[in-house]
Amino acid sequence: MQQQIQQQEKSLKQQQLRTIVWQNGKLSIEFPTEELHAVLDDPQVLVWLDIEGDCSLSQDMLCNVFKLEHITVRTMCEERERAKFVDSDNYYYLVVHGLEFDTATDEANTPKLDIVFAKNFIITNHRESLAWLDSVLETAKKNDPEEHIMSRGMPFLLLAHLPHQAIFVPDAPRHQSASRGCQCADCTHRETNSC
Question: What count of Cα atoms within 13 Å lies in the side-chain half-sphere of residue 74?
Fold first, then answer.
């Protein structure tokens, strides 16, 4: 029993970072995390950082490079968190849960996925490997400049993640274009007052 607990603690401390950068029509896979700060200044860049495992090991990078608030990072590091949507000044934070069913054991699992997104980056964080997310990552690693998943921008990349999730966000705020100014690149709310 003690050995099993130690193995679980060790697996929680392990972390895999996967970074994909789309810049000037070119794809960079496994982009060095220490260089992310420089590329995030480019408004045309799109960065996808996927964190599998315990995100507390990347806390400094998340706060200093991506400018996430400490409360967001602490919530991301929580193993269990309810579904929610948080509208911050510089980014949006979404906690969603998938649904997996093991037919051999008749057991269900609802793995948590944290998604933080802004105009030019998306961060996904999850404790365990998610097959559908690995598939999206593999698609993103294919260098097809004409139809690349990241060439269409952050909204399209975000939508590639959501069909696989069971999303329930109670009392989610509606788009606040009148009070904050729209951050949407492709919506027509200026004419219709809705996104």
Answer: 3
Span 13-69, pLDDT tens digits: 588 999 989 888 888 888 898 999 999 999 889 999 999 999 999 999 999 999 999
CATH of domain 2-170: 3.30.460.20
116 within 8 A of 66, measured Cβ to Cβ: yes
Concatenating the DSSP letter of every residue in 38-85 gives HHTT-TT-EEEEEEEE-GGGGHHHHHHTS---HHHHHHHH-SS---EE
- Per the listing, tokens 């998306």 go with 122
b (16+ CB within 10 A) / e for 24-34? eeebbeebeee
Locate the domains of the chain by residue range: 2-170
CA distances from 176 to 45, 69, 126, 170, 180 (A): 25, 21, 29, 17, 6
Residues 6+ apart with CB under 8 A from 74: none
Q: What is d(CA 33, CA 39) in angstroms, rounded to the nearest whole number?
A: 10
